[in-house]
């Protein structure tokens, strides 16, 4: 096998995640470096990163302050457990993070990924109700087309069928609200769609079936990312918050994608002015430099669990070996300082109107059937059906990659989520290349 100058390694040993491994290994696309807005391919060519790695490199690749913080921490303290032990940096970062969280959310539990964060949020919800003497609240309600990672809890609450096909029944007690995608009324909306707030009322109908006293939590992505960027209709999240509050149900925002500036604010909760009870976070938390995740939670949840446990007892039987890892804490603290001191969130907000205008210039190009956007997120839906659109999206991806631009095809949708430092010139390169790719793909069919 061609080892691509990988020495003793081959491509065969690594079982790649969410990848058609056999196809990839026949024609691998590898990068060997990254800086700022660009990857470097193995043949030395620059590749404009239109997807922030995987929704996570918000301050651009290789930011020197984040690199320095990781290097310094590795030399000073490489590991310390958080099980009845600790190190100062985890506490320092927790305090810094809470200072930018929505008001009332004032504690954080650290994990290592978004999948662990959503599973942790669900367990916190169950534990909270158990501590209050309402242990019958065991049902979790998610949403069709929702994505909450690949743990058993998050996957059970999620609503993307193909991700579940291989794994049987998963966890009992999960139910799903309808998704909010309504192209018949909302196609080509600029930002939040005008129609569909009433879709939230289906939650009230579900509660009549299941009894609200059996429901622990509702979990949603404020903007559904992995399914193709589904933006919530105006008023939808507000209705969900109201229904959950009235029935004593915890509302969880999965902000693994939207957290840390993707919508021009520290969190989507700020953008929508809707405060959940828990927020799952990861990705941009460390600028993608070191794996880390977490759950930001209200004082009500934290103190209920603290106060219900016997003196000297472990209040929550949950955690991970690498919770609050020193290198992750260093990277996260440095990343948050960069976001704040360099005005990364503010830049994303300022450049959003240009981003919106440029993405909607794709309307009318071959095979474009819908465009959805908010913040520095966009989804361009293609084709007469999913299979047709998927084939077109692959052609568009290949065209862009060959010309030095990285985008992400998700089924029949092109997903865009660049580093938040993207410039006007880089936006022009991205969308000029994408427009040419759509034209070229249309002429081939």
UniProtKB/TrEMBL annotation:
Keywords assigned by UniProt, alphabetized: Aminotransferase, Pyridoxal phosphate, Transferase
This protein's record includes keyword DNA-binding: no
GO process terms (BP): biotin biosynthetic process
GO terms, molecular function: adenosylmethionine-8-amino-7-oxononanoate transaminase activity; pyridoxal phosphate binding
Cofactor(s) the record lists: pyridoxal 5'-phosphate
Recorded superkingdom: Bacteria
Gene3D superfamilies: Aspartate Aminotransferase, domain 1, Type I PLP-dependent aspartate aminotransferase-like (Major domain)
The keyword Repeat is annotated on this UniProt entry: no
PANTHER family, alphabetized: ADENOSYLMETHIONINE-8-AMINO-7-OXONONANOATE AMINOTRANSFERASE (PTHR42684), BETA-ALANINE--PYRUVATE AMINOTRANSFERASE (PTHR42684:SF1)
Family that this chain belongs to: Belongs to the class-III pyridoxal-phosphate-dependent aminotransferase family.
Protein's recorded name: Aspartate aminotransferase family protein
Organism of this sequence: Limoniibacter endophyticus
């Amino acid at each position: 096998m061609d080892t691509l100058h990988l020495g003793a390694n081959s491509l065969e040993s690594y079982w790649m995640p969410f990848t058609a491994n056999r196809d990839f290994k026949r024609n691998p696309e590898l990068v060997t470096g990254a800086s700022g807005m660009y990857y470097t391919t193995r043949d030395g060519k620059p590749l404009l990163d239109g997807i922030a790695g995987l929704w996570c490199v918000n301050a651009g690749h290789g930011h020197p302050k984040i690199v320095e913080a990781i290097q310094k921490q590795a030399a000073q303290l490489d590991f310390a457990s958080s099980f009845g032990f600790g190190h100062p940096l985890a506490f320092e970062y927790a305090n810094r993070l809470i200072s930018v969280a929505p008001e009332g959310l004032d504690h954080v539990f650290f994990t290592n990924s978004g999948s662990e964060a959503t599973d942790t949020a669900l367990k916190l919800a169950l534990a909270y109700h158990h501590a209050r003497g309402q242990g019958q609240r065991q049902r979790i309600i998610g949403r069709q087309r929702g994505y909450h990672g690949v743990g058993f809890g998050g996957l059970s609450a999620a609503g993307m069928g193909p991700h579940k096909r291989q794994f049987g029944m998963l966890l009992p007690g999960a139910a799903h609200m309808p998704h909010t995608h309504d192209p018949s009324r909302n196609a080509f909306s600029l930002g939040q769609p005008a129609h569909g707030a009433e879709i939230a009322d289906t939650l009230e109908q579900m509660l009549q079936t299941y009894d609200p006293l059996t429901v622990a939590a509702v979990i949603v992505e404020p903007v559904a990312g992995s399914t193709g960027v589904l933006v919530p209709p105006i008023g939808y999240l507000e209705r969900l918050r109201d229904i959950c509050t009235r029935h004593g149900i915890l509302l969880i925002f999965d902000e693994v994608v939207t957290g840390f500036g993707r919508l021009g604010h520290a969190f989507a909760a700020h953008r929508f002015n809707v405060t959940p009870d828990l927020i799952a976070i990861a990705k941009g938390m460390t600028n993608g430099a070191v794996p880390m995740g977490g759950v930001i939670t209200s004082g009500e949840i934290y103190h209920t669990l603290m106060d219900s446990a016997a003196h000297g007892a472990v209040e929550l039987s949950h955690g991970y070996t690498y919770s609050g890892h020193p290198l992750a804490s260093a990277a996260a603290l440095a990343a948050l300082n960069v976001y704040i001191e360099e005005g990364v969130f503010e830049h994303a907000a300022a450049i959003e109107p240009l981003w919106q205008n440029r993405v909607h210039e794709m309307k009318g190009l071959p095979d474009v059937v819908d465009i959805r956007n908010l913040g520095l997120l966009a989804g361009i839906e293609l084709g007469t059906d999913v299979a047709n659109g998927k084939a077109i999206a692959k052609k568009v991806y290949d065209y862009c990659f060959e010309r030095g631009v990285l985008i992400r095809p998700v089924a029949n949708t092109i997903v865009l989520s660049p580093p938040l430092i993207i410039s006007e010139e880089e936006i022009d390169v991205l969308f000029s290349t994408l427009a040419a790719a759509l034209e070229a793909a249309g002429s081939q069919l």
